[in-house]
Write a structure and sequence with these properties.
alpha+beta; two-stranded antiparallel ribbon
Length: 151
């Protein structure tokens, strides 16, 4: 095959084309779901950072945005500045901002993150207990689409 000829994908029938279209659509949905989860996690982290005393600075100039993109993204990273330890969280995608906090703000962040994790575990345990205590058999037979009824 000459080097200037591109290989082409030929679908032998409409079924193959539909199959591939379905696979590609499912892949696109999965990717967008992952991106949404990552953005939600970043927003949760940024709320905790702000509540902990971290200062947020917007990348409001092209130079600041360019520099922001060079930093480690969406992770708290320790940095030394003038002999003091600071923690930096950069987000060039969602907020196009940087959060900077000192050691005390970092300790408050750690405590708040732990409290949030404990609260989430307690909420999940309460949900599981509520689900386990529901006696579905007491309320009659259930079909594949929910309770049987006159409707």
């Amino acid at each position: 095959m000459p080097s200037h000829v591109r290989p082409t994908v030929v679908f032998s029938n409409v079924k193959d084309l539909l199959k591939w279209a379905t696979v590609l659509a499912a892949f696109a949905v999965a990717l967008s779901a992952c991106a949404a989860i990552q953005n939600q996690n970043a927003m949760d982290t940024e709320r905790l950072l702000a509540a902990s005393g971290f200062q947020m600075r917007l990348a409001d100039t092209p130079d600041k945005l360019d520099h922001l993109k060079t930093l480690t993204q969406r992770k708290l990273v320790p940095h030394q500045h003038e002999g003091k330890l600071y923690y930096v969280y950069a987000d060039a995608t969602s907020c196009q901002c940087i959060y900077i906090g000192n050691e005390q703000a970092y300790q408050r962040y750690q405590n708040l993150a732990l409290q949030k994790e404990i609260a989430e575990e307690q909420r999940m345990a309460a949900e599981m207990n509520a689900n386990a205590s529901m006696n579905w058999g007491l309320w009659g037979p259930w079909g594949p689409w929910g309770p049987a009824g006159p409707w």
